[in-house]
Amino acid sequence: MVLMDAPLVLGIETSCDETGIGIVRGRTLLSNTIASSMDEHARYGGVVPEVAARAHLEALQPSIDAALAEAGVALADLDAVAVTSGPGLAGALMVGVGAAKGLAVALDKPLYAVNHLVGHIAADILDAEAGELEYPTVALLVSGGHTSLLLVRDLTSDVELLGETMDDAAGEAFDKVARLLTLPYPGGPEIDRAAATGDPTAIRFPRGLSRASDMASHRYDFSFSGLKTAVARWVEQHEATGEPVPVADVAASFREAVVDVLVTKALDACARYGVPRLLLGGGVIANKRLRDVALERAAAAGVSVRIPPLRLCTDNGAMIAALAAELIASGRRPSTLAFGADSTLPVTEIQVAEDPDAEAPAP
Amino acid sequence: MILGIDTSLGTAVAAITRDGEVLADEQSANPLGHAEVIGDLLRRVSSAAPAPTHVAVGMGPGPFTGLRVGIATARVFALGKGVPVVPVPSHDGIALGVLLADALTGTETGRFAVVTDARRREFAFSVYDGLDDDGLPVRLSDAALSPRDGLDARLDEAGARRYDATSVSAAMIALAAARALDAGRTLADGEPLYLRSPDVVAAHAPKRVS
Ligand SMILES: [Zn+2]
Fold first, then answer.
1. Percentage of chain B surpassing pLDDT 70?
2. What residue in B sits closest to A234 (Cα-Cα)?
3. pLDDT value of position B203
4. Contacts of residue A48 in chain B, CB cutoff 8 Å?
5. Where are the beta strands (DSSP E) in chain A?
6. φ and ψ at A335, to 5 degrees?
7. Phi, psi at A176, each rounded to 5°
8. Do B162 and B128 touch, CB atoms closer than 8 A?
9. pLDDT-above-90 percentage for chain A
10. How many CB atoms neighbour CB A360 within 10 A?
11. Contact, A278 vs A263, CB < 8 A?
12. Burial of A187 (0-12, 13-18, 19+ CB in 10 A)
């Protein structure tokens, strides 16, 4: 029987290129162990699903061992196991799902299959300094795999998708534009470095889905492929003149276009829904310009901003464990063993395959 | 007890005693859905047998995505139970089943090749010839890939009869592991038998857009 109060949960996250094993006791973080295959993807200019899945299989066992050692707990101490069911790369997710089922059956412990995107929000509650997460809040999740704007009324029961990217994720756009500028992968930090000395107003690149005509059906959706093409065209036309490409100005102007559209739409959602709170999550939040612009413009709009510690913003298992701990605390039953990987799991499915016949956690 | 898992073709989980008695044997013939079914199969088998001393797992060859599910489950289940993993080439399990079935009916098996679908118009095959003194199949050639058109000619050359398999018995994976343990032998290293590199090309120069 799982006790609701501060359950000890091990979370497994394998939706993209990070093998994340996290251990939490309720809202207390005990370990956040991450093995990344990013270096293996560098020569391909982006995450290769088969390379990521192979790396997960190799990293799982050592990562679990490392997480247990760091947390100072034994497997037998665990109250529950949690795993990302989706969204993400199907073959990568399946490695984690298999592992989680193997662990839950071996230990005879309940298993919670949860939503990766909602996990990004749950990362915030592990921040001991931040104080209670207030509802409702708008959440902007930006990474190499997703760009989503959510309205969170309750972490465990009510998350609504306001909008998401129609094509590339913001992080992907950074990678692709970095390649155009012959900068290495991953593109985010490289664009940042290049942009440091550039003028963000030098070139006015388009803001996707931001015209008045887009407001009816795509007010909170994002599109970055047009922006990428605009950068490519600008660079080609400039090269044709024989002049060197002003990489710093292009990088700064591109980054400004991405940041502007992200922050504008997020604050528009805050205003329209009357929610003076914005939560940022996902690996691209590591981008300092994005954080600075969000903080500055949110302050002007009277919106308070929460940003989890950056090591909890990138994909990790601690946020998956944290979400499961909250589900347990709210009395949710564990998942059946019959769920699979769902690469397009909607954000409204916070927990997958809750078992109506299972024992509920004890108060 | 030795628990066996194989997801190189379908999904199979079984438990046997160290001397080979089958305690539980569960499988799903569905060539997909490994991640969905493996938990329930594992729970049923695990609860029908005493605590395992080893977890034997089929290392392929087989379609990568499904194959990995079984290996991930086996490794972490073994970690949870605090017992070692014994990797077994999946074709060894199939070959052992063929040889034991023939021995039971007094049929002379002769040299044969276990053949499984490797997708992309290729087969994976391994050549075997009889059982050795440890009761394990004698593997003459490790798993390799062949174009579908060219396989029969290769097997003729090797003098091996063709045995097409569409499932793997997890009990046979566990039995091969038990016999290997008795003999102090290792049948496979810990790596999946992918036989193919990830299907990717290095990044090329960006395409022109104007
Ligand atoms: Zn993510």
1. 95
2. B210
3. 56
4. 198, 200
5. 8-13, 18-25, 28-36, 80-86, 111-115, 137-142, 147-154, 158-164, 277-281, 304-306, 351-352
6. -80, 160
7. -70, -40
8. no
9. 88
10. 13
11. no
12. buried
B4-41 pLDDT per residue, tens? 999 999 999 999 999 999 999 999 988 789 999 999 99
pLDDT in tens, B36-92: 999 999 999 999 999 999 999 999 999 999 999 999 999 999 999 999 999 999 999
Question: What is the signed CA dihedral for A228, A234, A240, A245, rounded to 10 degrees?
Answer: -90
CB contact burial B25-48 (16+ within 10 A = b; e otherwise): bbbbeeeeebbbbbbbbbbbbbee
Q: Tokens 């392929």 map to which residue?
A: B60
On whether any CB of chain B is under 8 Å from the CB of A105, the answer is yes
pTM for the full predicted model: 0.95
For residue A106, the CA-to-ligand 1 centroid distance in Å is: 28
Residue at A226: amino acid letter: G
Q: How far is the CA of A268 from the centre of ligand 1 (A)?
A: 23
How close B22 comes to chain A (CA, Å)? 20
A44 min Cα distance to partner chain B (Å): 5
Of A90, A102, A185, the CB nearest to B42: A102
* Cβ contact, residue pair B78, A106, below 8 Å: yes
**A341 contacts in B (CB within 8 Å)?**
35
Task: Report the alpha-carbon distance of residue A185 to residue A187 in Å, rounded.
Answer: 5
The ipTM is 0.95
b/e B143-173 (16+ beta carbons within 10 angstroms → b): bbebeeeebeebbeebebeebebebbbbbbb
Which of A150, A145, A105, A98 lies closest to A124 in space, CA to CA?
A150
Q: Which residues of A touch B198 (CB under 8 A)?
A: 48, 50-51, 54
Name chain B contacts of A176, Cβ cutoff 8 Å: 206
Instruction: Count CB neighbours of A185 within 10 A.
Output: 21
Q: What's the confidence (pLDDT) of residue A42?
A: 83
pLDDT of residue B174: 98
**Ligand 1 ion: nearby residues, β-carbon < 5 Å:** A 143, 315
CA distance B163 to chain A (A): 29
| C-alpha to C-alpha distance for A271 and A263, rounded to whole angstroms | 12
**Residue A148, min C-alpha distance to chain B (Å):** 27
Q: Please write the tens of the pLDDT for every residue from B133-167.
A: 999 999 999 999 999 999 999 999 999 999 999 99
Per residue in A187-219, pLDDT (tens digit) is 999 999 999 999 999 999 999 999 989 998 999
Residue B89, token pair as written in the block: 């080439």
3-state secondary structure of B38: helix
φ/ψ (deg, to 5) at B27 = -155, 160
